[in-house]
Write the structure tokens for this entry.
Amino acid sequence: MIHPPAIAEWIEARTYRERLTLSALSGAIAALGLAPFNLWVFGWVGFAGLLLLASLATTARRAAWIAWFGATTYFAVALHWIVEPFFVDAARHGWMAPFALFFMAGGLALFWALPAYLARRLLPQDALGWRLAALTGLVLLSEAARGVVLTGFPWAFPGHILIGSPFLSAAQFGGGLGLNLIVLGFAALMAGLVLRSLGWAVLSLAVAAGLSVALIAVAPTPSVPDPDAPVIRLVQPNAPQHLKWRRDMIPIFFQRGLALTAAAPEIEGRTPDLVIWPETSLPQILDRSDVARAEIAGAAGAARVIVGAQRFEGVRPVNAMALLDAEGRIEAVYDKHHLVPFGEYLPYAETLSRWGLRGLAEVLPGGYVPGPGPDLIELGGALGTAFPMICYEAIFPGYIRQVATRPDWMLHITNDAWFGTLSGPYQHLALAQLRAAEQGLPLLRAANTGISAVIDGRGRVVAALPLGEGGVLDAALPPALPPTFYARTGDLPLVALFLLGSLAAIVAGRRSARH
């Protein structure tokens, strides 16, 4: 029988309600590790508290509730920005905001509650150490599933607290799931060592710091952009969402985009080779926008332009981006294929539409239809090949593995005006950084209200435009780094490791309990 020291004894002396409160507090602390706070050490401590409290639960049901309370608080604090879209049209949708946040946070927390229930159910009280190990492995496995179940939502992974830390370098080996392993692995180490000695927990933080230094040492060194590297201009028109589609404001924002496109070069002696406008920035339907496209081309001079637009596929609208030549003609089109549930389309649309409900981001009637899938945009010459992503698609790491050849860079256009100014846009930018670090590829990002940014192959923001300001950003295209280990392997090896590790901990714990 394990006799943990004072900290565990103090927890065991708390009532069930007090433990639920402690779990909720741990979840809130863990969320401070995410952008824009980036207090990643706090995040580590919060997750350690969650694992410790769930492991010390007296029954499987209580373990599940403790984990659910803590994870619900974590997701509620981390994802509080999801209420913002409901207040763009507050009279119509504002009443839904608290329900959306509760059901989103509570639903995602089930991915923690189930592992806690199984770990406590399968392993007895006197196998506490193995139960903590099994719980950690099962949560890692469950979080991997969260990235794909019901179209997936790999946002606010525990490992995302490390995007703003030196540990981002580890993404080249294991991607987001690898960062999850570092965070929850060290959190479990802290929890396990606290059971024996607070000093050992402090030592675990020292080990974490040492690992951070090691990861920095093996991180790829970014190359300086070639003097002849193409110059790309990012346009940030800063159209607030509640004004963006007002009839009297549409021409104002369009003229602002034209003026920014035609602005003097920011790099002396270098005019842009490519101009990028953000998501849905073309005010007319793509196939009916000859005049608008000609105006854009005139403002861009000799440069080609990539613009976010809407078009129709049959009678249904599509969220797209289009490559325009120097005359404004359409050279290529990419259609967004991973749509936002309840934002760009409604599941069970026929039923819900009878109640007057529609997608929050639905501008054209009927909701968007998805495009055929991931693709490449061939730009030719020094611009090479770009991997396009529209808004939500940048949170998914696996799509780039579905294209035929490795691109030269990644392109992300988005309209984060939906998500307020506190945390949503910063977290979205952080996920773009993670995509770049995973692949060793530069990523250029044009966002309507910000944050437009140039990100190098290590995931570092080289240059950016502030949130909530209009402007342009000219930058030489950073070079691609060699393909990373993660780019070659993807998530499958780590998923297999999580599964085998969880099973091994469960088997070892049950055997130790019998002896």
About this structure: The radius of gyration is 24 Å. The chain has a mean pLDDT of 89. The first helix runs from residue 6 to 12.
